[in-house]
Design brief:
A hairpin with a 7-residue loop joins strand 1 (157-158) and strand 2. The protein has helices at 3-17, 25-42, 44-49, 52-90, 103-128, 140-155, 168-177, 188-192, 198-204, 207-219, 223-242, 246-256, 261-268, 272-290, 295-301, 314-322, 326-336, 341-348, 352-376; strands at residues 157-158, 166-167. It is 72% helix and 1% strand. It has two domains: 3-219, no CATH class; 308-377, Orthogonal Bundle (Arc Repressor Mutant, subunit A). With 377 residues, it is mainly α.
Length: 377
């Protein structure tokens, strides 16, 4: 599917979702299409999958849904929601690890940091979409697109020498906490853009910039992987909402920001005992989510889908199959064929609900098999 076709499909879906027409809808659809085409072209995982068209549609809808999320919130609430999300991501990083700051002092630092970060994001938005230096979002849809881009940009994961894989906004906040002036920081965006001419000569003299560029090209997270992760998180939050577990959602959001247990206790106002209870309840719902109707998405993200033998090497898979009953082997075979729960129920003479329970038990057995193998190693 070329950019024009994809753009038209996005525009059609976007127009159906908007309450009223937007003069900027066509341009927003075009930018999403171009970005998706670029990602699919650069992703080895997508190129090797043989399903490039399917990935184009999946990635486009993911970006479209994110923009529509902010569009529905409106300009004011959208800003509040985005600002709160970014604040929680950098809360523990904008000051030195052992600094004893009050909440108000830390909040002031966060505000100072995010003001500069928003300016950086706008520059990146203009650059990546090849827009004029004077461009500013003006319509509600353009603003929603920019806020979605800001969230995505902040969450980009970068690996630097001697560091773990980390989100871009966290790296920026850590540099801010060290009190380094902006011009002394390694510009991560410049490091990946392969400058030409005199700029290239200047950067080539910087050993740090060379290291950053090489590491980013070698180890940057595949965009397809990031989309799967975001889909898992979004559907898990939706599941927790349906179960009335709002406190579990709060806990999940804070855990995703890599906050330590005492910091989570302080933010949520929990005692150690209350936190232990919340953790147990959270674990129960996550396991239920992973083994229920969402199992395929979760296992695809973990690299443990049915096509990958539920994440087991061949010998372990053969041993696992040997331990299954005849009915479990039949259930597995039907699942691999793509049969629905209703079709499977008819085949093995039970109800669709019993199919779900038996499949959940089989996934539990597979998890135990993988876990046992991991512990033995």
């Amino acid at each position: 599917m070329d950019t024009e076709q994809l753009s038209e499909q996005i525009l059609d879906e976007l127009s159906q979702k908007l309450k009223s027409g937007s003069k900027s809808a066509q341009e927003v659809a075009r930018r999403i299409a171009k970005e998706v085409e670029r990602i699919c072209r650069k992703s080895n995982r997508i190129q090797n999958s043989g399903e490039v068209r399917s990935w184009q549609i999946t990635l486009a809808r993911h970006r479209l849904q994110k923009s529509l999320h902010y569009y529905k919130l409106g300009s004011r609430q959208g800003r509040v929601d985005l600002h709160a999300q970014l604040s929680s991501m950098v809360y523990r990083h904008v000051a030195h690890l052992h600094s004893r700051l009050s909440f108000q002092a830390r909040y002031t630092l966060i505000e100072d940091f995010l003001q500069g970060f928003y300016i950086e994001v706008l520059r990146a938005f203009r650059r990546e979409h090849e827009m004029p230096l004077t461009y500013t979002p003006r319509t509600q849809l353009e603003l929603a697109e920019y806020m979605a881009f800001t969230e995505h940009y902040a969450k980009r994961r970068i690996t630097l020498p001697g560091r773990y894989n980390q989100q871009l906004i966290v790296l920026r906040a850590q540099g801010f906490a060290q009190g380094q002036p902006p011009e002394t920081l390694v510009d991560i965006e410049q490091a990946i853009e392969f400058p030409k001419g005199e700029d290239a000569e200047v950067q080539s003299r910087s050993y740090a910039a060379q290291q950053v560029r090489e590491k980013m090209i070698a180890e940057m997270v595949d965009p397809a992987e990031a989309v799967l992760r975001d889909r898992v998180i979004a559907e898990l939050i939706q599941y927790l909402e349906s179960q009335g577990q709002s406190d579990c959602i709060d806990y999940l959001v804070l855990k995703l920001q890599d906050l330590a247990a005492p910091e989570i206790d302080e933010i949520l106002g929990l005692s150690a005992r209350q936190r232990d209870y919340l953790q147990q309840r959270f674990k129960y719902h996550v396991e239920k989510f992973a083994r229920s109707g969402h199992w395929k998405l979760v296992h695809q993200w973990l690299g443990a889908d049915l096509d990958q033998n539920l994440g087991m090497p061949l010998q372990q898979w053969d041993n696992f199959l040997g331990d299954l009953s005849e009915e479990q082997q039949q259930l597995l075979k039907l699942k691999r064929s793509g049969a629905s729960d209703a079709e499977i129920a008819q085949e093995i003479k039970c109800t669709p609900k019993q199919v779900q329970k038996r499949w959940s038990a089989l996934l539990e057995k597979a998890w135990q098999s993988r876990n046992t193998e991991s512990q033995e190693k």
